[in-house]
Amino acid sequence: MPEEGRSLQQQQRCRDIHIMPSNEEGVETKLQRIAEKARSDPKCQFTSLFHLMSRDLLWECFWQLKENRASGIDRVTKEQYAENLMGNLDDLIGRLHRMAYTPQPVRRVYIPKPGSEKKRPLGIPALEDKLVQAGLSKILQAIYEQDFIDDAYGFRPNRSCHDALRTLSQTIERQGTQYIVEADIKGFFDNVDQDQLMGFLAHRIADKRVLRYIKRFLKAGIQEDGVYRASDRGTPQGGVISPLLANIYLHYTLDLWFQRRFQKSCTGTARFIRFADDYVACFKQEADAKRFRMEMEQRLNQFGLEIAPEKTKILEFGPLAQQRAKRRGERKAETFDFLGFTHYCTTSRNGKKFRAGRKTISKRMSAKLKLYKQWLRSNRTLPTAVIMRTTANKLRGHYAYYGVSGNSKSISNFAYEVRMILFKWLGRRGKRGSLSFEKFDLLLRRFPLPPARILVNLW
């Protein structure tokens, strides 16, 4: 059957059983050789990379794009592009290699920000821009994965928020941490210095075509409500390549600075743990923590970034923090937030061993319950089976992230509140009082919701 005549589902099945035919060396093999070269020679500058932007690579990138995503200003969907996939890819490759390809402005939309009345700006690229960015990301990732430090976790293969939280927990409990520096970069993605970023890329990338296309994406601009705005700073949030570019920027700005310079001047524990632009630093000595707070701010300022003072602090945290707090007449030691969890000082069940406890940030939980309430209020006329199935999926998603060691109380509270919201809004579909707790209990037996449970061990 010709490509044009296949449905998106048929093409997907074809891909599952047969990788796109090619007479050349496979894409993954080429990328692996690039990775091996980058690993064996940390100073190597790659002069010939753009030939990897082939139809094979973009074919893989296309099928890895998520389904039913919002379209950019071109309004082209994945299904529409797939109707003539091979022809579209051939045309795209031709324009790319003639340097005739020009990225389109990203479509700016705003999405709710959990725990806040504010909204988060998001840039939605056109479909072909997503494809090209994904291809460039694969090439750059093969190189920079060999360079990134172990304690950088965000948007990297085989690494997750839970890995960062586990490292933090072990550092606090086993490596003599007594002080934590919690920091937040103000508007990071909007304030990346593009010239500095291009300079960082030039340390490893000497292929002018790769650098030129990255520059074009950075300069593509934003379209909001039909109005175009140039982008002289930052990387567009929502862009496929933006997380990798952010990691590269912070790799040179903070990671290497801490590892190669600052850490060597510290006494005892000194560790920097980062997930994208969210990070904390652990220290044994208060003097090192205070010095990091000051020098880190100076370092960021050199690269066009600044911290949010209201979200940046030094606090005692560790085995001695609770004792010191009581001596000062305080009931509890201070807490800090990281990756959706409030961390606090506690002990093991027998009270003999210090533990770094964690619970869902209260604002995050309130925001998620509010979103669920809004969804249910708008969809309460759906069939009961659909509502219950969707609610069960939402609970599983919550447990998958927040179901970590020590957080059983928070996820149990979340599950209880979801059930109460469900009881309230299902009851409003009929006469007042038509849904009693007895009937609701029978409904839950017929459509059981998953119980709260710990799924991730951080200890």
Short description:
By secondary structure, the chain is an alpha+beta fold.
Counted beta strands: 11
N-C termini distance: 54 Å
The Rg value, from CA coordinates, equals 25 Å
List the total number of helices. 17
The SSE string, one letter per element, is: HHHHHEEHHEHHHEEHEEHEHEEEHHHH
Structural class: alpha+beta
Contiguous uncertain segments of 5+ residues: 1-5, 13-23
Largest sheet, strands/sense/barrel: 4 strands, mixed
Percent strand: 5-15%
Strand order of the largest sheet: 2-1-4-5
Average pLDDT, rounded to a whole number, is 90
The dominant shape is globular
Q: Could you estimate the helical fraction of the residues in percent?
A: 40-55%
Task: Explain how this protein is built.
- The chain is α+β, with helices and mostly antiparallel strands and 459 residues long.
- 48% of the residues lie in helices and 13% in strands.
- The chain has helices spanning 8-17, 27-40, 55-64, 78-82, 85-97, 127-144, 161-174, 188-191, 194-201, 208-218, 242-262, 286-302, 321-327, 362-379, 384-402, 408-427, 437-446, and strands at 106-112, 119-124, 179-184, 222-224, 227-229, 270-275, 278-283, 313-316, 336-338, 341-347, 354-360.
- It has a 4-stranded mixed beta sheet, with no helix packed on it. A 4-stranded antiparallel beta sheet has the order 6-7-3-8, sandwiched between helices. Strands 9-10-11 form a 3-stranded antiparallel beta sheet.
- Helix 2 crosses helix 6 (127-144) and helix 14 (362-379) packs parallel to helix 16.
- The longest helix is centred in the middle third of the chain and has 21 residues, at 242-262.
- The termini are far apart.
